[in-house]
Amino acid sequence: MKTCAFCNINKKRIIAEDDNFFVVKDIYPVTDLHTLIITKKHIQSFFDLDIKKQKLCIDVVNDQRKKLLLDDSTITGFNVGINIGKDAGQTVEHCHIHIIPRRKGDMNNPKGGVRGVIPGKQNYEMLDL
Ligand code: 5GP
Ligand code: ZN
Q1: What is the per-residue pLDDT across 13-48, written as a single tens digit (0 to 9) for each?
Q2: What is the whole-number distance in angstroms between the Cα of residue 48 and the centre of ligand 2?
Q3: How much is the pTM?
Q4: Which protein residue's CA is at the shortest distance from atom 22 of ligand 1?
Q5: Residue owning the nearest CA to atom 13 of ligand 1
Q6: CA-CA distance, 35 to 58, in Å (whole number)?
């Protein structure tokens, strides 16, 4: 697609690929080595992949996790995430998965992780329930 950032990505940025996916480092990384797994085809989201392709995609997530751990011994955790739809924060409407390496002390209180997509809801123990 002409206007899509991932259809037009600079091929020099690709660090791994197979028949269905390519892998790049995010140009605006949340943490060092923030990695994106991107479909070669312009498909809107993970849920638009058939189950076989979804499984193949998860294989790439596993491969990249292993590689990241080998490359950087300071990584102590990950957030793996997909923004699906504008209302969930998706900005590039081309299927991709974020692998965000985490390191001890990279923020004050990481408790709740991906719950932080809604500011103020990350740490459920601090919510007035
Ligand atoms: P979304 O918000 O759609 O889940 O994520 C889009 C991600 O793609 C963002 O984290 C953003 O930094 C990243 N990004 C946007 N344009 C480019 C690009 O041209 N190259 C790379 N490597 N990452 C991009
Ligand atoms: Zn695209």
Answers
A1: 999 999 999 999 999 999 999 999 999 999 999 999
A2: 13
A3: 0.96
A4: 26
A5: 26
A6: 14
